[in-house]
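Appendix B, example 12.
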Amino acid sequence: MIAVFVLYMVATVSLAFWYSRGARSHRDFVLGGGRFGGTALALSERATGESAWLLLGLTGHAYADGLSTIWVALGCVLGILFIWMVMARRLREETERTGAMTVSGLLARRFPGSEKPIALLSAGIVIFFFMLYIAAQFSGSGKVLQETFGLDPLWGILIASVVVTIYCGLGGFIAVVVTDVFQALLMIFTLVAFPVIALVLAGSKGIDLAAAFAAAGPSYLSLTGGKTGAAAVILVLSGLSWALGYTGQPQLLTRMMAIRSEKDVKTAVRVASVWTLFAYAGAILIGMIGVAFVQSGAVGGGVGKLADAEKVLPAMVTTLVTPILAGVLLSGVISAMMSTASSEVTVSSASFSEDVVAMLRKKAATPRGMLLLNQGATVAVGAIAIVLALTMRDTVYSLVSYAWSGIGSSFGPALMLLLFWKRLSRAGVFASLVTGTVATVVWKSFLEQPTGVSERLASYVVALAMAVAFSLAFPEKRRT
């Protein structure tokens, strides 16, 4: 199992090194230089979008809460389908028209005269929330390697984070997309093959799934987790609200900005849709089947309950299958974390170089200088995220939800209005960015517990309303 895992790490870095040899320009490093088609970018977006949150967070959620997890999965699936089917083509066209290389740049270049404040504010939001997001991925890798090999979480975090930082620094966007494709294939193998393996093993061991679900509690097979009335409505809406955040995630939307042609967009839609449906169905099945194995004592050391629900997948893999297959499946789990972390590292470094340094410098840097700046920023972002991963104690699910809400609520309303509403003004952009950030922090800290409404839903709705209101109150002056 260790040999397979080491081989996976070596293959990942080797792929990144080989394909990033041509990444010698700043645009290559940040957006790939138009090298990739629909299939590669769709797989890269899916690998990036489905992080430790899917393979640890969602499987653990399904293990703990049962069928009501379906609303979270449905919200994610709807969000993914929406950004590919509705937003992708327009994002590609807007990128070609403006020449922007980041999502922040798209917003800034729409409003001449306000480029600097929009870019600086956007970059600050991206870097702040992505630090938490990257830390969640590194923390997840520590959990998997601890459960698998008995490593101290410190070493698990360091191993995954150092590898990610190395290959991001080697080739930026090109290295990330190439490794993402490899990782997306490993992830989907884990999420499709392992539920089938687990079902076959349950039958051979005489494990009764129906009895296990009944023993898990009367609400386990309830679509609303046993809740009724307003509480049930809030649960459903909170799950579906994951869809909103997809409209503002820079690490995903940059894949659509980088697509070469309209034909490639159509190919990407098909690939992303099929991958997503199989992946989410597999994650929920793994979590729910895990209940039966843990109750039977076949997984979890015979105690009938896991101390950490988010370790259900690695615990099942290491217990139920042969070491070689376990190594392959667990490489798929680690792939989810590394692919997401790598994309967020490159987006954060690009935001720093493009939206902070380039805006503040009076004299334009040389292409070589910008490339070196991006590589240095990549290493710095990785180092800060390592420190956060080692010091924060939140669950992967909680950290990702918080960062997802902050980024999605800040950028989502502004981007949606930019692409589909001609009356968006610069005042509306500032309102979306500021309100989305503040509302996420305030709601998560003070209002989520008493209301039961997630920060993902509340902050997005408030930010969208403020963006529209400020655009109407302070419209753009018409050019004569």
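The chain has 19 helices and no strands. The first helix runs from residue 2 to 19.
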